[in-house]
Structures are given as C-alpha cells and as structure tokens.
Amino acid sequence: TIPKPIPGGIPYVAASAVRAFGDVPDAIKHHAKTGEMIAFLATKCVELNSPIVQVFLRPFSKPWVVIADSQESQDIMARRTREFDRSDYFGDLLKATIPHHQVWMRTGEQWRSNRRLMADTMAPQFLQNVAGPQIHAQFCSLIRLWRTKVSLAQGHPFSASLDIEGAMFDGIWAAAFGSTIGSTETQVRLLGRLSRLDGLSQDNDAVAVFPEAPYPPMKSAMSTIANSSEIPTNSPLGRRHHEFALKYYPSIRKAVKLKNQMVEEKLHAAWQKFSSPGASEDSIKCAADLIVAREVTLARKENRQPQHDSPTVQDELFGFLLAGYDTTSTTIEWGVKYLTAHQDVQAKLRQHLRATFSQAAEQKQPPSAVDIAKTSLPYLDAVIEEILRCGATAPATVRVATEDTEVFGHHIPKGTDVFMLNMGPSYTAPPFPIDEAKRSTTSKLLPTQDRWTGTWDPRTLGDFDPERWLVRKSDAAAGEQQTLDPQAGPMQTFGGGLRGCFGKKLARLNLRIVFTLMLWDFELRPLPQALGDFRAKDVLTHRPQQVHLRLQECAP
Ligand code: HEM
Fold first, then answer.
1. From the CB of 327, is ligand 1 less than 6 Å away?
2. What is the C-alpha to C-alpha distance for residues 67 and 54, in angstroms, rounded to an integer?
3. Which of ligand 1's atoms lies nearest the C-alpha of 321?
4. Which of 99, 116, 182, 412 is the most buried (most CB within 10 A)?
5. Contact 331/511 with Cβ under 8 angstroms?
C-alpha cells in the first residue's frame, strides 16, 4: 500500500506519495549523512517552501503534519488545547518504561492527580533549599575532576560528554534521593592516582584520552533503561516490542529489576521518616521525601490510606530522574560549545558573575547554591535562553488533533500527529512568509502578554547572541539597568502551554549553577576547527555529536 495524503492541500513530496515507504528512504539518507532526524522535517518545509507540510514516515499509518512557524505553534500549545493534546508518539517512547507517569497521559483527571503529587518539587522552597544545594555539591566534584584533568592534559583538549553526563546524573540523583551515587567521584579517585598521562601527543591539538573507572551499576542501569526507548522508535512493533524487551531481554530486565529495588528502597526510607504523626517537613532532603510527605497529606485530605509506594509514586519519582538528566546534560553540552566558540560572550559572562558575586570573589570561594538561585543575573539568564534557543535540546514538540480541525486553513483530521519544530524557520532561520488571514482566530488575536516583544532581524536568527534577550530599564532608585525579557522572541525548547515542560524551573536553576561554577574556575579556551563543529545527533534529545574542552584554570 502507498501513503494516503491528507486531502486539503498540505504540501508533500510527490515522489514519496507513490512509494510504499513514503519519505523513509530520504530520511534514512539524511540521517546517514548528518546524524540528525528532526532537521529532516525542517528540510522538507524548505524544499516545499511551506510552513506546513505532510510527511510519510510511518508506513501504514496516517501522515505526520509538520509546522515550522513559531507563532502558530505557540498558539496550538498554549491556546488550542481543546483541539490538540499529548500525542501517542510520546507514549510509545515512554509508556512501557513508566506506565503510570504523567508525561504520556492525555490531559485529564489522572494527569492532574499526578501533577498535584509532584507540584511541590518545582516550588521555590524545594528548588532553593534542597535541589539546588544537592546539584551544586555534585557539580563541585566535576570541578575537582576537571582540575585533575587540566594538570594531566597539559593544554591538550579532551572529550567532556561523559563527564557532563555523569555529573548531571549525580546531581539529579542527589536531588531525587538525597544520597550520593558518585559517578564523578569514582573518576576523581582514579585520576588522582596518576602523576602523568601516558601517550600524550606532541601535537598540542590532539585529544588527550583519560582512563575511565567503571560507572556505578545504577548509572549503567539508568542508561540501559533510557536507551531502550530507541526500541519503539526503530521497531515496526513499536511499544509492544519495548514492553517485551523490558521483561525478557536479560540486560534490560536486570536494569529494570535494579531500578525497581532502588526506587522501593528509597520510598520505604522516606515513608519511615514521614509516616509518624510528628514528622516535620524540615526533614525533607530530596524529591522522594517530598513526594511521600505530599502523599501522606493528600491521603489525609482525601480521607484514604496513603500509598507511599504506589505505581504512580514509583513512576513519577523515576520519571523525575529520567526527564531531568538527559535533557539537562544535552543543554550543558550545547552551552559548552557555544561558550567556547564565542569567547567574547564567555568573558562577559565571567565578568558579570564576578561583579555580581564580588564578596565570593574576594573570599576566593564560588557562590553558594542559594545565592545563585536568589540573585538577579540577567546576563547569565540571557546566555541560558540563547543556549536553549540555538541548541534546541528538544527540537520538536508533538501534539495529536483530538478532533477534525484546521491549521493555516488546511484540514487536519482527528488523530493526526502534528510536529511543531522548535528549530529552523522562524527560530534559528528566517520565517516563511505567512498569509496572516490563514492564521487561527486565537493566533490572529494574540493577547498582549503572549506576543514576542523584541524586534529581532530575521537575518540574525542563526547567530548566537544573548543580547537579544536583554532590555534596558530605567528605575529612579537603581538607575539604568539591564533586565531579561523572556518574551523577547521565540524559544520553545520547553514546549508550551499546559503540557509544556513540568521541570523547566529545575532545569533553569541547574543550568545557572553549572555555568556559574564552570566559568568561576575555568576558561574554556578555543578549540581546533575539527573539534569545534556544531553537528548534532537525534537520540532521545538533540545532542552535539562531539563535545571537547580545552580548559585553563582561572584565579578568581
Ligand atoms: C533543559 C532541560 C529540559 C528540556 C529542554 C525539557 C524539555 C521538555 C519538553 C519539550 C517537554 C514536552 C513539552 C510539550 O509537549 O509542550 C517536556 C515535558 C516534561 N518535562 Fe522537561 N525538559 C527539561 C528538563 C526537565 C526536568 C529537569 C524535569 C524534571 C525533573 C522535566 C520533566 C518533564 C515532565 C514531567 C514533562 C511532561 C509534562 C506533561 O506531560 O505534562 N523536564 N520537557
């Protein structure tokens, strides 16, 4: 059977509509050449010169609709929630791993109930006093590891992806469970025993390769479980294949067993702490504590028995770890690359941090997690917005049409998956010309608070320029000041609307801590051209293909 295009004029590649595998052969070629998948969707919009196209990437299924226009995407996510909801595309990736987690659910009572359980993990109290300090302490281990690497590498660059992933895992683990897993400390101990690195090349641009200590079994189990999401993406049996693999593939089954034991253990420990009537919220040291304490309170309010280790509690806690670690480490990897390539931005950011935390600089101490969380840092926030915009860790957001509807005047049948690109035209490249009359009613009547306020020259959208997020404000008391305008222009790397990223406050705090500590102690020196490219690969997130650092310690 050949694909059945959606009638109503949404452009598609004519040659793809007359072959069984539709656009699949071209997508495979694109992937082989570039390593990327989502950018393939953007290339179809460019090829067909349209902000809306349909592609045939799932044989025997409905075509996917692709939208490359930030205003219409924002409108769909934020305001057209009756017509568009969470798509099964997400469910197929995650449902087998976390069947009781909010991420894949349609918006409804069960989703709201999961949100209520988790709500306080994003409250300022928890972020500032619990999650922030845990992440800060863990990232300081990475600073120690990099100091050792700097002295052993003698000016040579080294690969930093595993270091960053390990430290982010340690950080989110500590925020989730209140204990140290030590992926980074094991490396610190191993390298601490070396007085020199064997095999260093004479060529100063050659990459220094360090020995690696085995990661803690739980870290490897996590990677096994996270990577198993590639099964439903690549198998024609989709989620059924994934469910089978989780139960019967020995390595995956072992990882799941270890994870289940660990989650149950942590929840049990939290239950012991919070089940007694006199338990105080002051003893909340991690997300597991907080969720169990919440479950006790909610059960009391709803006049039912608390279920401290129900499937929902277990999956939400594990989902906290899973959602937080891959996304954040990918974003930091992009940040490292942009700051290395833009030495002027890096120097300005370091100076901004030193000037803002002048007391810490005098005391030759890095700023604390609480200070980093509470202090106004407009330039740092602008750099983070720009990294999220240009790196596009989540390169697309997906919704399903829950009824027959229209986009740009084209018919979209109920059940169609709509991919809204967070990169390419109207984000990081000039937008397509749009017939304004064809926008949706809500898009045409955008409320003032939802409009982009900046005047970004479309020709500069591809440039990395944090200044685009800053505005000057005059204040009688403080004089002229720069502040961040989060509405300056389109950045939808966290999705949007009711189903936008639940964890974005934690993510932003994590990024603030990491870039402050990193630039406080190190200069990210320029790299040879071969190591500095911006090629990406689409795994669970849109990651750089290679991340290298040539570090130099800098005194405060
Ligand atoms: C830079 C880091 C992150 C990025 C780029 C990111 C991106 C996203 C995106 C694109 C979505 C889908 C949004 C939509 O469909 O509109 C999402 C959903 C979600 N994220 Fe994040 N995320 C990040 C960090 C985190 C963290 C740290 C957590 C929690 C610990 C988290 C928890 C979630 C959850 C629970 C959802 C599902 C929300 C729902 O379905 O209602 N994320 N994220």
1. yes
2. 9
3. 30
4. 412
5. yes
Distances (CA, A) of 185 to 170, 212, 214, 338, 531: 9, 12, 11, 27, 27
Which residue among 165, 501, 502, 538 is best mutated to probe the pocket of ligand 1, counting the most ligand atoms within 8 A of its Cβ? 501
Ligand 1 touching residue 171 (CB < 6 A):
no
Gap from CA of 89 to ligand 1 centroid (Å)? 15
| CA dist., res. 153 & res. 146, Å (int) | 10
Query: Which pLDDT does position 276 carry in this prediction?
Result: 78
pLDDT for the residue numbered 451: 85
Pocket test for ligand 1, best of 427, 502, 505, 513 (most atoms within 8 A of CB): 502
CA 494 to ligand 1 centroid distance, Å: 6
Contact call for residues 65 and 52 (beta carbons, < 8 A): yes
Q: Distance of CA 427 to CAs 391, 433, 552, Å?
A: 11, 14, 34
β-bridge mates for residue 407, sequence order: 410
> Does the beta carbon of 499 sit less than 6 angstroms from any atom of ligand 1?
yes
| Burial status of residue 429 (CB atoms within 10 A of its CB: 0-12, 13-18, 19 or more) | middle
Residue type at 455 in one-letter notation: T
Residue 523 to residue 341: CA distance in whole angstroms: 12
Q: What is the band of 202 on the pLDDT scale with cuts at 50, 70, 90? A: very high
Distance 185 CA to ligand 1 centre (A): 28
Averaged pLDDT, 442-459: 88
Ligand 1, atom 17, residue with closest C-alpha: 501
Ligand 1 atom having least distance to the Cα of 331: 1
Tokens 């709509």, residue? 418
Q: Which of 291, 318, 494 to mutate to test the pocket of ligand 1 (most atoms within 8 A of CB)?
A: 494
Kindly report the number of other CB atoms within 10 A of residue 307's CB atom: 11
* Structural domains present in the chain: 14-97+395-450 (3.30.43.20), 121-391+501-553 (1.10.630.10)
Ligand 1 centroid from CA 204, angstroms: 40
Q: Look at the block and give the residue holding tokens 């833009």.
A: 342
ipTM above 0.90, yes or no: yes
Q: Which residues contact 312 (CB under 8 A, 6 or more apart)?
A: 100, 113, 114, 117
Whether the Cβ atoms of residue 355 and residue 325 lie closer than 8 Å to each other: no
Give me the pLDDT at residue 556, please. Answer: 61
Ligand 1 proximity of 494 Cβ (cutoff 6 Å): yes
Q: What is the mean pLDDT of residues 258-265?
A: 93
Q: Tokens for 292, please give them.
A: 């169990």
Element (H, E) at 227: helix 217-227
